[in-house]
Write a structure and sequence with these properties.
Helix content is 20%, strand content 37%. The protein is α+β, with helices and mostly antiparallel strands. It comes from Dietzia maris.
């Protein structure tokens, strides 16, 4: 794709330069629902949302009711304690909620986060990344979708667990 986003981090200069894809026009936004839309992202034929790209997540697998994402943060994502900032982790989780929901709704259904609870279990350190974010749909109803998420480090240890509810907007 010609407009492929990029993310470049220079730890010596403490700089980050990145670009993101243009937001799809209103007519194309509904195609982000459905498993096929996610497969296009995995295959590199479509982009993640600009926010997801900025947070550094990558969609690595999608199946009905679940997605797996990875995130490899850099120093810019750390808190003053030297671990990945909880807000960054929360952003990963929120992103995973949406993409998991996309696997169980048909094209044309919109969705937005209604509720999000993140439990931070252990600090995530850069040397134990990339992190894996696994989101699984627990319930998909007419108006809401309940999703469970787990964030693990490279040792397979859970760093955060979360649950969220997505509001569905059916045509």
């Amino acid at each position: 794709m010609d407009d492929a986003p990029f993310d470049s981090v220079d730890p010596v200069a403490r700089g980050r330069h990145y670009s993101w894809p243009a937001l799809p026009d209103a007519a194309e936004r509904s195609v982000h629902a459905g498993l096929e839309a996610l497969r296009l992202i995995i295959d590199g034929e479509r982009h993640l949302s600009p926010g997801a790209h900025t947070l550094g997540v990558r969609l690595s697998a999608a199946e009905v009711g679940a997605v797996t994402m990875t995130a490899e943060p850099a120093e810019w994502a750390l808190n003053n304690g030297g671990t990945v900032h909880g807000g960054i982790v929360s952003g990963w989780v929120d992103t995973a909620l949406g993409y998991a929901t996309a696997t169980v709704v048909e094209e044309g259904v919109g969705y937005s986060t209604l509720d999000l609870t993140v439990r931070y279990i252990r600090a995530l350190r850069l040397e134990r990344t990339p992190a894996t974010i696994r989101a699984e749909v627990e319930h998909a109803g007419r108006s809401t979708c309940v999703v469970q998420v787990r964030v693990t480090d490279t040792d397979g240890r859970t760093c955060a667990s979360a649950s969220g509810v997505m509001m569905l907007f059916r045509p």
